Amino acid sequence: MKVRQSESKRRLAEKATTLFNEFRNAYANEWRRQEHCERMYRGEHWHDVPVEDPNEPRPVTPILQSTIENVAADLTEQVPEAVIEPESAKDAFAARVIDAVIRRNHDAASYPVEYRKLAHDLLVGGWCVQEVGYDSAANGGLGGAFIRRVDIRSILFDPAVTDLQDGRAVFKIALRPKAWIEAHYPDVYPLIEAQPSDASVRITDEILTPDPKSVCLLIEYWRREYDAQADAYRVHMALLSNGVVLEDSRDVKPEGYFAHGRYPFVTTTLYPRKGSALGFGIVDLFGTQQLYADKLDQLVLKNAFLASRNKLLVTEASGFDADDLRDWAKDVHTGENLNGVTWMATPPLPNYLLSYVRAIREDIKEESGANQSSRGAVANNVTAARAIEALQEMSTKRARMATDQLHEAFREAVRMEIETEREFNCFLRPVTITVDGAPREVLFDSAMLEKSAPGGAALPIEFLISIKAVRRNRFAEASQNELMMNLLSMGAITKEQAIGLMVFEGKEQVLKSMREAADAQEPLFPERTKSKRSGGRK
Questions:
Q1: Are 257 and 419 in contact (CB under 8 A)?
Q2: What whole-number distance in Å separates Cα of residue 142 and Cα of residue 136?
Q3: Integer Cα distance of 465 and 497 in angstroms
Q4: Dist. CA 79–CA 254, nearest whole Å
Q5: What 3-state class would DSSP assign to 221?
Q6: What are the CA-CA distances from residue 264 to residues 97, 199, 258, 296, 469 (Å)?
Q7: Which of 45, 100, 162, 303 lies 20 to 30 A from 468 at CA?
Q8: Sequence ranges of the domains in the chain
């Protein structure tokens, strides 16, 4: 039986293909820039320099890579945590439950791993993307929302806008084996097999290149349409391959894929570009300095090679045979005139040149924010946790700016995540919260996030809860504990309050033990109390 697609599906495929080709042509220079930035990061930028002498040295000092890794390490120490707080006392229980749900989602999706990838994309490529969605197979089939990183070489925004939410469409592309498509979409696979493969448009790895005959390009076509009657936007998603529509979200949800009506992507730019939704990274700003530093290293090495092989100038009138002089095993050479034999030594490079090479490398570190304080070098000389944290905050302003941008994008992604949970969750999911220092299992129901306005319309989640992105590192936690100890010594708080506000492993168990001891009217450390009462008497 011959497989066919409906007329509406064919029109959808044609429109998506035309728009995708327009976006792809606009992104050609961006993809080349990203490849160049990755090569600079790996230290392979000499391949972009024309070869003048194949024997000349091409040294690479990975100062730019080290700089990026140091700043990335500073960013990854500030992995954000979502803190959900209620807007009113009656929403406190719902806020605690959704806080536990979000934390479990991030643990299941390994968000710290995704965050490290986001930091790399941001610093090297200049921008990064987070996607929010719902996985119905997560949590043993109960489902769950997720936040994950999207490879910036596999997503295309509308090049005509500066905000992706204003764009005509968003394309996300990936390669899939034909066997995978045949297993998931057997009804339309014959149409895909009959079309020529378009996998060559995908930016692939420079080392591992799959066979275009065995893979297909999978395109997620996200489009946003305005509904004039409802005065709202609706987002739809279609999955295509080789010009064939595999699935269309309008068949299942004609009212829109997401109730919030937005593209499920959040972007972060390190150094924004004017007139674009993309950005520039550290490589774009400091790559030229890396090239000049390596070029100066090349001059130093060439000078060292020339100086290690001094040339001997021999005139014909000297009477010496050049081949005879090359024989260093001979003790006696015969000639007529020594004035015709001269050594030509290579003059050394000036000392200021070597100092200039070191200065360029230090400038890259300092100006990019990868200085000693940001790398934690002051921790050996400063002991107070608050002093260490203050020094790091002041020394790494660039990294702090990038951290704030990532955390604000994370907060926006968490808001979408909660909206997604409210819309797609259909099962009672058990989660664990802490009540009076003891764990307690409760059931999460999306109905607890529903709150209606007087007119009957559903209120946004901001009317129930507030979302904050909290960053914690070892110095911030130590500073928090140190502050609580100071307040305790001043008598401003009790022991139980101090421990409750501290950050350390096993805090809930300590609080539980303190409450049990207080309820039983027994000391927490009976052995120590007994020894004090005995007064040391035998």
A1: no
A2: 7
A3: 25
A4: 37
A5: strand
A6: 24, 25, 8, 47, 19
A7: 162
A8: 7-59+105-282, 474-538
Q: What is the rounded CA–CA span in Å between residue 338 and residue 314? A: 9
Strands (DSSP E) along 324-456, which ranges?
341-344, 429-435, 438-444
Query: Which residues are paired to 359 by β-bridges?
Result: none
**Dihedral angle, C-alpha 516, 522, 523, 524, nearest 10 °:** -30
The pLDDT, as a whole number, for residue 392 is 47
Query: How many Å apart are CA 438 and CA 106, to the nearest integer?
Result: 22
Other beta carbons within 10 Å of 6: 9
Longest CA–CA separation in the chain, Å: 115
pLDDT tens-digit profile of 36-86?
A: 999 989 888 887 777 777 778 888 878 888 888 888 888 888 889 888 888
Query: Quick one: pLDDT at residue 204?
Result: 60
The CA–CA distances, whole Å, from 65 to 31, 40, 119, 396 equal: 20, 8, 13, 17
Q: What is the H or E stretch that residue 262 is in?
A: none
Question: Between the CA of residue 400 and those of 30, 370, 385, 510, what are the distances in Å?
Answer: 26, 11, 18, 34
In angstroms, rounded to a whole number, what is the distance separating the alpha carbons of residues 478 and 386?
8
Q: What angle do CA 150, 159, 49 make, to 5 degrees?
A: 75
